[in-house]
Amino acid sequence: MKKILVPVDFSENTNNAVKAACDLSRALNCDIILFYSYFEMILMQSINITSSMESVPIIDPDITNILHERNEKEMKKWVSFIKSEYPNISVEAIVSPVELKEKIIEICENEDILMIVMSATGTGKKDSFSGSAASSLFDSTPAPIIAIPENYVYQDDALFRNILYATDFSDVAQDEIQFISDHFLGNVNRLYCCHLSFRGKEISEAVVKMEDLKNAFLAEEEIGKIVFKIIETNDVEEALEELTDDKEIGLISFHEHDRNIFYRFFHRSVIKKNIYRFNIPLLVFRKFES
Hints:
The protein is 41% helix and 27% strand. The protein is α/β, with parallel strands linked by helices. It folds into two domains: 3-39 and 66-149, Rossmann fold, CATH 3.40.50.620; 158-279, Rossmann fold (3-Layer(aba) Sandwich). The strands form two sheets. It has a ten-stranded mixed beta sheet with strand order 5-2-1-6-7-12-11-8-9-10, with helices on both faces. The longest helix has 25 residues, at 61-85. The radius of gyration is 21 Å and the shape is elongated.
C-alpha cells in the first residue's frame, strides 16, 4: 500500500496539510503517516577536565520524557481527527527527537512513500516548516513534495483542479507528466504542460521537444485533458500570474533543477515570498522514481 507522509508542527498550518493529505488518500487509496520531530532539551554542565572547568552538553531524561509525552498527546489529537472525519483512512503516527530532514529521508527509504504533503511558512518565520526548511527538503528528498502555503484556505478536492506543469524538458519530464496523469488527471479539468522562454530567445529546439512530449500523450491531448504550450515572456512572474488566473490553476508543478526557469524563480525566493503571494500549492519533483 502506497503511503502519504505528512510532517506536522501542531500549528494552525497543520490543518491544511492534513486535509490535503486526506483528500489525496481517499482519491488514491493510500495510507497516511503523520510525523512530528522535536529537539531534545540539551543542558550545559560544567565539569572538571584536566584541572580546568569546561561546559559539556547533557540531555536531561526527565525533561525529554515530558517533551515526548506532550508531543505524543498532541499527535493523538490529529490521529483522532483523521479517524473521526475520514474513518476509512488508515493512519499511523511517528513522534521522534530527530532532525526533520534526516528522519523524512529515512522514512522515505523504509516506507513506500508516494508523496509528501507539508505546510510551509513564508518570510521571517522560524519554525520547523519555514520557507528555507521546505526548500531544503526539495534539495534532498526523493519523493515528490506538495507544499501548502501558510495562508492557503484548503477546500475539498482543491488539488484535483487545473494543474500547471512547467517543463524545461528534463529527461524525466515524461515520467513526471505520467505521474500527474496517473494520480491527478482523472479528477481535474485539465493539465497545462507549459514551457516558459524569454522573449527573443531561439525556441525551435523547444518546439521540437514540446512536440515529442505531446506525441507521448496524444490520447490525453486529443480530448483536451493535457494542453501543451510554449510561452514567450520577458517577465516570468507576470506570465505566471496571468496563467494561473486565466486557467484557474489549483496546483503548480515543476522539476527541481537549476536549468528550470520555474525552479530558479521558485527556489529560495518563491518558497520564502512569491508562492505565498500567489497562494497556490506546489508539487515539486526532484528525483523521479517510478
